[in-house]
Amino acid sequence: MKNPKQHLILSTMSAHVLAALTLMSGGVQAQTAAPTIEDVPVSNTALDSEAIKSRVVITGSNAANRAPVQSSLKATQPQSIITATFIEQAVTPLADFNAVARIAPSVGSGLSSNGPGLGESKVTLRGFQDGEYNITYDGIPFGDTNNPTHHSTSYFPARIIGGMVIERGPGNASNLGQATFGGSINLFSKELATEFRFSPYATYGSWNTRILGAEIDSGQLERFGDARMMFNASRLTSDGYQTYSGVKEDNYQFKLQKPLGKDTMLTVFSTYNKIHSYVPDKAGVTLAQVALYGKNYSLNNDKTSQNYYGYNYNDKRTDFEYIRLQSNLDGGWAIDNTLYTYAYDNNTFSGQDASGATANGTKSGAAGNKNVPGYNKLNSYRVNGDIFKLTRQLQAGLLRAGVWLENSDTERHTFDLDWTLNVPNPREASAPKDVSYNQNSSWKQYQPFVEFEWAVAPQWTVTPGLKYVNFKRSLDAVVNQGTRIPTKADQTYNTTLPFLTANYAVNKEWSAYGQVARGFLVPDLSMFYVNNPNLSTPKPQTSTNYQLGAVHQSGNLTFDADLYYIDFNNKIASTGSGNDLVYYNQGGVVYKGIEGAATYYVGSGFSLHANGSVNKAEAKDTGLQIAKVPKSTAALGLLYKDHGLYGSLIAKTNGSQYAKDGEPAAYQIGTYTVTDFTAGYRWRVGGVVKMLKVQVGVNNVFNKQDATAISASSKGAAFDQYSFVPERSWTVSLNADF
């Protein structure tokens, strides 16, 4: 198991690096100030020299200041920019990053069955599932190492996010990640304050939910070379909406920026997150359980039950650190290098089957016993990487080139248990009888890229690019998952990805863009869970994206719309039976649709927002909509902001979808709408207390508790597990600045 304190090494090292650099640089003047909260970068891989051109400054008009989502006039693909102001004023402080993203067009779900931010959630992006798109933080892609999926309650709660840019497409060659296939959800850290500030905050809400925390900003420290620092610490506790599903989360975040001369900036960042929660490993509730206990049933206090809360819990620890050095060099050159590491450690204990399909009884007990079966599951990994980027400003345009290097090391196991006797349970006939799997895996990858932003004319840019991907995945299993035999295997996947984007400024208020680009998705580790993994040599799944769009920004109106067509190729299929499967490439899916968003400032502080999408994802062989793809999304909101008073009423609708391929009527999930309300007041007090803010929020105002997902059981429809919108909940929050 990884050392859960390893993250402290980099944090300590960062502190010593800062001290040394501070002494060396003395009274060096700061470079141009970092962007404000509203100054959100358009691309997750933007260099400073590039960002000067591509930042969107949300200060130019009433509509732009108030829009929940909008696009940049310099966009080269469909995007949704979500500012820190919207996150702070219209999203519950309990939220995870998926709850922030769900406001955007073509983003589906983002709801946790245990209440906002109190359990893991998933979002779809144009129907692409988690693991088929990237999530980045300050330009660094992160995700699991068996496939690039994510855990929304880990790493970055919404209260430490300083902005979000959702890119619905592969982007340019400089966009990084293992799943450019479906686009990117890009998170950004908060900007550092220029003045000293101590900001305690508290939230109380439904289900005995509490957040207590504080942020300290150093402001600009002239005696230390204009360095700026921030530290944030918070604790969340809650009983949860679902039965016996309490959660406790601690989060710590540190960020430092230090100018090194007038042309160089050093950034050091570290965050640590710890969660203890009571939840079955495979969450959901059967319709029979709903009839007996209600839609909020999850766990119980019966020690003879596999759903006893004492048998179903997890401990998660995550850390994420980076050191970034940016420098403008002579001759129009600039470099940007980010050295990073992140880790995830999830130690889960669970009953054998939350659906009730598996009866009590273990092989470790006497014959005919009714002992409670269960298991312990570990997923523990560390990822290390470096992103180097180089730019050169030329008369004809901007040249960008770079390389992304990364490696991972993962330990995973599942050990079977007898909870009644608290001993191993030998479920399997062959040795080791109580081990379902025990494996180590790793990857090594590199992705060099180059692109040129050609300034064809003052109002027109065209950016061709090329990226090469080399990804080697290795497995070393004492007991392999699925086969339960020792297995060593490795595969190397590579592909070349071309990109072409363009942006044309029609005038100061209108622009148009187009994109033709290829995305890719690395094959899943599960392809090694067969008797002979080396018989399978599939290529990475790829997509070819064709997109056209337009953006408008004026004093009272922001508007953007786009059309997309995505040809998904190299879909991985299998032949054979049992553990003798062989994986290969076959068929694909066509994704197509239309998206749009608009905000209109009515006046007197009021604005209206609407966005929506119509989305199709049809299998090439059947022409049917594939599973888990909402046919549409829509959002409608009324927002107010004036003289310290603000509020929002926003309804988000997810269109109907199917839980299984083939469009079976029994697995159709109907359209559902969730409406959220927030209102707050901020006033300047003066004296010791500089500012006070009070905010109230109501999630699911109309208390609609529709089904959001169905997990089909191999043991029959009676054991299918359903997820539902949690009931109406409320929060009250208080913030202060000293």
From TrEMBL:
One of its GO terms (biological process) is siderophore transmembrane transport. It is found in: Cell outer membrane. The keyword Membrane applies. GO terms for molecular function: siderophore uptake transmembrane transporter activity. PROSITE patterns: TONB_DEPENDENT_REC_3 (PS52016). Keywords: Cell outer membrane, Membrane, Receptor, Signal, TonB box, Transmembrane, Transmembrane beta strand, Transport. Residues 1-30 form the signal peptide. Residues 74-183 form the TonB-dependent receptor plug domain. GO terms for cellular component: cell outer membrane. It is a multi-pass membrane protein. Pfam families: Plug, TonB_dep_Rec_b-barrel. InterPro entries: Beta-barrel_TonB, Plug_dom, TonB-dep_rcpt-like. Residues 292-701 form the TonB-dependent receptor-like beta-barrel domain. The keyword Transmembrane applies. Belongs to the TonB-dependent receptor family. This is Iron complex outermembrane receptor protein. It comes from Duganella violaceipulchra. The lineage of its organism: Bacteria, Pseudomonadati, Pseudomonadota, Betaproteobacteria, Burkholderiales.
